[in-house]
Amino acid sequence: MKIEQKTYSYNGKEYPCCASLTMGVIGGKWKTVILFHLIDGKLRYNELRKLVPSVTERTLSLQLKKLEDDKIIQRKVYTKKPPLKVEYKLTKLGESLIPLILSIAEWGNSIS
Description:
Largest sheet: 3 strands, antiparallel
Low-confidence stretches: none
Number of strands: 5
């Protein structure tokens, strides 16, 4: 398969190829794990912390912020009554990653 050689721009960043763009958005140790857990629907911050206990709070917060900045997840804050409630869910763009995330998970399951 021959991919056209051109640069890609997304969210104010330049990428040398389409694979680089994809990995720039979902790459790293935690982003795909977070997205995997959001496939079934919205989750609160503390629910995500419990599902991914080995991630630090700081790292989880930073990764969620990056995914939100890249329009992959949506953050909704409920302030009507205490305590403050924050939920995260996939955006339409994030939902388009579901087949890719499931393939990644399936591959990991097949080699374990």
